[in-house]
Design a protein that fits this description.
This protein is α/β, with parallel strands linked by helices. Helices cover 41% and strands 23% of the residues. The chain contains 12 helices and 15 strands.
């Protein structure tokens, strides 16, 4: 090959790697782009691609560098990455080794915040109807926060000061960085699953104040869904009074600070004892008044005129009862007799109008067979017609032998058919 040196693939790749290292621009590089194909490997390393409308660049961020991130990267998020260009010799490809990663301006985080807020609102995560009331006096309070921050000290101090008997169960988590959202979500789920004597009655989840990036773990969807799925009430206590996170909107109650959360979930023991004492005093007063009223009533019955001769009083009342019983019987008898007379009158009128009464006087009803037509005139009947004649005690079936018209007023026959009748 014209005497040219023949290099191995490894030699070529190594040479390219050395060339990239020698370029000062590529040793400390800042690249703006949108994350795609993001993957957080079980090893802790992050793999993704940065892209814009013209090109794409493979990236890797090792665990030692990404563990201090204040937010969790995801596909679609605009970022600025700082690192250096190197060659991954085994794959024969160049890539950006990311040492630091930040959202591309605060606007990017705000846009992500609003996107997730709209999504969860559409799913009903913020509906007031599903939010639960806090228990009046929780036996055990679960706390999800950093074990080393000021928030946990404030919460424990206030809970113990207000009600020394309360039991506190701390679920320690990271409150910022890429691993924080998953740790927070798992801690809420673990506390919520506890049962029996280990169960908690309410959960406080939060941290002290910070920048938007530092509070970002509480804007992650995995945390929101864990709060939403909890069976016990959840109080969100993230940041300061002016800070709002997605967790605040999903939680059953939002506290402006961790200290305020502790005051919300448990009453002061001295205040409860005072209210119990006042209620007991009011109950005692009401009971004494009731007893005095009943005592006065009994006293009046015992020493009153009616109880000086109790036997005579009983006899008088019995005589009065007999009198009332007699009046009731007389009144009832008179009422029933009046009703019976009215009934008999109605029955008489009904019988007078009844067709059966007419039949009883010798009249009949005649119907054609099989049509059932009532015969009102001889004009309806022809010889050999079949008839059903109804009398008071039954029916007579017959056949017409003849028909003759008669003027019942003059007694003359005007028409005659058949053999006569």
């Amino acid at each position: 090959m014209n005497g040219a040196a023949v290099l191995s693939v490894g030699q070529v790749t190594r040479h390219l790697k050395d060339l990239l290292r020698s370029d000062a621009l590529l040793r400390d590089l800042r690249v703006r782009g949108e994350i795609s194909n993001f993957k957080h490997h079980s090893s802790g390393h992050m793999y993704f691609t940065l892209k814009d409308d013209r090109a794409c660049l493979r990236c890797v961020m090792f665990q030692d560098w990404n563990r201090t991130l204040s937010f969790r990267p995801r596909s679609g998020l605009a970022v600025v990455a700082r690192g250096y260009i190197g060659v991954f010799e085994r794959a024969g490809q160049y890539q950006l080794y990311v040492e630091d990663l930040v959202p591309d301006g605060i606007g990017a985080l705000h846009a992500e915040f609003e996107r997730l807020k709209r999504k969860l609102a559409a799913e009903g995560f913020f509906d007031q109807a599903r939010k639960r009331r806090l228990p009046l006096l929780p036996r055990r309070v679960g706390v999800v926060t950093s074990p080393t921050g000021a928030a946990v000290r404030d919460i424990i101090t206030i809970l113990c000061r207000r009600f020394p008997n309360v039991s506190i169960l701390l679920a320690p988590v990271q409150v910022q960085g890429p691993r924080a959202p998953d740790e927070i979500a798992r801690a809420i789920a673990r506390l919520d699953r506890l049962e029996g004597k280990d169960a908690v009655d309410v959960i406080i989840v939060g941290r002290g104040g910070g920048s938007l990036e530092e509070l970002w773990a509480f804007n992650e969807e995995v945390v929101a869904r864990s709060i939403f799925a909890a069976r016990v009430p959840v109080v969100s206590a993230v940041g300061h009074e002016t800070d709002f996170t997605i967790a605040d909107f999903v939680a059953d109650v939002r506290a402006p600070t961790p200290s305020a959360a502790a005051e919300l979930v448990i009453p002061e023991k001295d205040e409860l004892l005072r209210r119990i004492s006042e209620s007991r005093a009011r109950l005692d007063t009401a009971l004494r008044a009731w007893l005095n009223q009943r005592r006065s009533l009994v006293h009046n019955l015992v020493v009153g005129p009616g109880m000086r001769r109790p036997r005579e009083r009983v006899l008088q009342e019995r005589q009065h009862l007999d009198f009332l019983h007699h009046r009731l019987r007389v009144t009832l008898r008179s009422y029933l007799e009046g009703r019976r007379a009215r009934l008999q009158q109605a029955v008489g009128r009904l019988e007078a109008l009844s067709p059966l009464a007419i039949l009883a006087r010798g009249y009949t009803l005649c119907h054609l067979v099989p049509s059932g037509t009532l015969v009102r005139s001889v004009a309806q009947v022809e010889p050999e017609a079949r008839l059903r004649v109804t009398v008071v005690d039954g029916e007579i079936r017959c056949t017409v032998n003849g028909v003759r018209e008669v003027d019942i007023f003059a007694g003359r026959s005007s028409r005659q058919q058949g053999s006569g009748g």
